[in-house]
Amino acid sequence: MKATKGRNVVVVGTQWGDEGKGKLVDWLTERAQGVVRFQGGHNAGHTLVINGVKTALHLIPSGIMRAGVKCFIGNGVVLSAAKLFEEIQGLEKAGVEVRSRLRVSEACPLILPFHAALDLAREAARENSGVEKIGTTGRGIGPAYEDKIARRALRVQDLKDPQRFATKLRELLALHNHVLKTFLGSDKLAFGAALDPYIKNGEVQFDPVYEEAMRHAELLKPMMADVSKELNELHAAGDNLLFEGAQGTLLDVDHGTYPYVTSSNCVAGNAAAGSGVGPGMLHYVLGITKAYCTRVGGGPFPTELDWEKEGTPGYHMSTVGAEKGVTTGRSRRCGWFDAALLKRSAQVNGLSGLCITKLDVLDGLQELKLCIGYELDGETIDLLPMGADEIARCTPIYESMPGWTDSTVGVVDYAKLPQAARNYLERIAEVTGVPVAIISTSPDRDHTILMQDPYQA
């Protein structure tokens, strides 16, 4: 029996998501026995590249790619059972064993077809009224969290009782169909092939939703679990755990660029609430950040460049970095590194260390700019404000640094990085006050420089 309790690490995105968390979770899982997803839904995606083969994950923790590691979907996740089994089948076709290693909290709220319909109809209503769209993925994540907070959600545990599920489903359909048809004009909207089997005359029908849910129930029952209990038992037995966040800090519903945010808390503190462990079990918070900035969807972005114009630094980032959303395929907006933004992330997450990803994307740029603060209404500030309106009025204050021409792709020794690249990394650590613990030099699992091991006290 192990003499001491396990050590646990939280991995969070520090920008607007898409920082490369999936690769780092997969890489760190070599040191962990359990990986936990604690918030979000299938509106996020992680791309892993292992031996040159790409794998995209949306719900299942990235630790699934390591044989023998236990994976958990915590109560803070809103779950689309349809998407979960679609993902499981894809992994199984690739020879990855999933079902015996995956545990799903019975407290997860379910995402059902009417949630996606509401999501799409609301964005259409905003567009038709001339109001800027939030930029949701249309997957139903926000409406599912609304049902959770309103205490009317159907949860994974309800799938075990068909009669209870049916009663609650009829109540939810009555409410949401009224909103869809009366307020959002759903009978005049086209929802697309994925939702067409569930919708008739603008209303979501009971039978196809219920029948599909009961099919999923039988498949899901062997994976249902008291995740809180199992995680605490693993910790007590000496196993290391890794808590995997989705999206990024600036998309957090409380601390992000509200209202252009997601519908959950993406910060490190939610690893406890979203999985059922005490805050004292979170020992190290690793903040993942790109060597530049990107953002998908609407909302302010102070350091944004003209990333669609050939020959510009922004275009270089967009094309060399292959900046397309994993879930939606939307192009990501690109811009210079924002250290003032990272200071805000460090503050709300309590970052222990940084992992800088996509350093290799900057190879070949002659000059780099680093945002160290902003001018706002005639004053100089060094921390990203809270709220979209103030952020939209910010003018970045930049420092210029020389770039490098030597390739950093695949470098695994810090001393072998170009001096200019080391200077850039060290300046980021200096301005933000957070040490650089890990550097990623390509999407491949093995192209990683370890400066400080989060699993070493």
How would you portray this structure in words?
- With 457 residues, the chain is of the alpha/beta class.
- 30% of the residues lie in helices and 19% in strands.
- The strands form 5 sheets. It has a 10-stranded mixed sheet, sandwiched between helices. Strands 14, 16, 17 and 18 form a 4-stranded mixed sheet that branches.
- Helix 2 (81-93) links the parallel strand 5 (70-73) and strand 6 (102-105).
Summarize the structure.
Helix content is 30%, strand content 19%. The protein is of the alpha/beta class and 457 residues long. The chain has a ten-stranded mixed β-sheet with strand order 9-6-5-2-10-1-11-15-19-20, sandwiched between helices. Strands 14, 16, 17 and 18 form a four-stranded mixed β-sheet that branches. A two-stranded antiparallel ribbon has the order 3-4.
